[in-house]
Amino acid sequence: MPGLVRLPLGLLLASLLGTVTAARPPRLLPLLSSGRGALGRAALGSLLNTLADRVHCADGPCGKALALRRPEKPGLASGPVLEHRHLSRLSAAAALYLSDPKGTCADVRAGHWATRADHLLALLEGPKALTPGLSRLLQKIRAQAAGWPAAEKACADLPQLLEKAEGAGAPSSPGLVLAALVDHVSSGSCLRALPTPQYFVDFVFRQHSGETPNITLAELEALMQRLGVGGVAETPGDHSDHGHLRNGADHQGPVPLATLNSSSSLWDTVCLSAEEVMAVYGLSDQAGVTPESWAQLSPALLQQQLSGACSPQPRAPPRDELSQAERYLYGSLATLLVCLCAISGLLLLSCASYSTASHYIIQTFLSMAVGALTGDAILHLTPKV
Questions:
Q1: Strand 153-157 to strand 189-192: parallel, antiparallel, or no bridges (unpaired)?
Q2: Confidence of residue 233 (pLDDT cuts 50, 70, 90)
Q3: Is 356's pLDDT higher than 80?
Q4: Among candidate residues 267, 95, 55, the one with its CA nearest the CA of residue 175
């Protein structure tokens, strides 16, 4: 396994030494989803050089730190092709470089780049870990994107990356999602780590099922009662309508997942922090929220309340990992231990010839018996509060 971890790292580093650059960097997602793709040295060098051009550090180009002076070093044997089984690791390593170029350069010098890539793939494994993990990764990449060149294409967000992976046949595969991420960056597209401000308004308007595009009075009253604000206006001769409104207001079912566009449903379950909400609207942490900005920010707070994304999730009860046979075994051992302690009372017969010793021993056991019975009686008679 150590050799397997170090081999693709040697290929990555050695490829950066080449001066050949392809006209267009290769796309990793089609190669990875096909199950039989591979990267040549020229294509791999073109991809990494393109990613290095997208990253700009304040103290110099970060890609220069990825050069390896001794590609022939034992354990880092170079080859003409990067096989399909290493493409997921390549995607994770490239994503790490985009999110933290300086830290990746330090990992390269220490020989830990491939290990970090494997660790990232392991962290994103599973549907419950994939979405929050990718969201944090995109935020780190966005933080580095301040010095990137202007994007040539529209920005891609997390739902679009997951949709790309789903189209490739594996929606929960971290390797495919990271490959789609690298393809977007290498093609000149920017990344969006948070939803757009319009999403929060769309979410609120998705709560009603009316045919009109506007929220009606009945729907507004139901929405206000769900939020626990406002009162119910009663007018004479309007009891039937009022009862209908009350029934609609009392409906506390789950938030519908029908969306106005394909990228809305994913954010319905994401709990955003205060810093992330301000970042959605482009508000500075130092300047804070102005009265004018508060009117724009209110739909985000309303959406978080309606979606229940920040509500505490019930914890699953701990599972009993003991099998049926193990339960019987441990129960029998406990019963045997209690019986052995009772049989130990036969040892008192050996002390019967010593009247002085047997007297104190019997008094001791009598005291213990009285104390145990008294304590048990007190515990049973004490009322429970």
A1: parallel
A2: low
A3: no
A4: 95
Q: Are 87 and 177 in contact (CB under 8 A)?
A: no
Residue 139 has which token pair?
A: 């935020």
In the chain, beta strands by DSSP E: 39-40, 81-82, 153-157, 189-192
The answer to whether 259 and 206 are in contact (CB under 8 A) is: yes
- Range from 183-197, 301-315, 318-332, 338-352 carrying the lowest mean pLDDT: 338-352
Closest CA relative to residue 162, chosen from 264, 244, 46, 232: 264
Question: What DSSP line would sit under 79-117, residue for residue?
Answer: -SEE-GGGHHHHHHHHHHHHH-HHHHHHHHHHT-HHHHH
pTM (two decimals): 0.56
Q: How confident is the model at residue 81 (pLDDT cuts 50, 70, 90)?
A: low
Amino acid making up residue 35: G
- What is the residue whose two structure tokens read 């507004």? 220
- Token pair recorded at residue 40: 């040549």
Amino acid at 319: R
Helix (H) or strand (E) holding 190: strand 189-192
Q: Which of 72, 73, 95, 91 is nearest to 82 (CA)?
A: 91
- Terminal C-alpha separation, the chain: 60
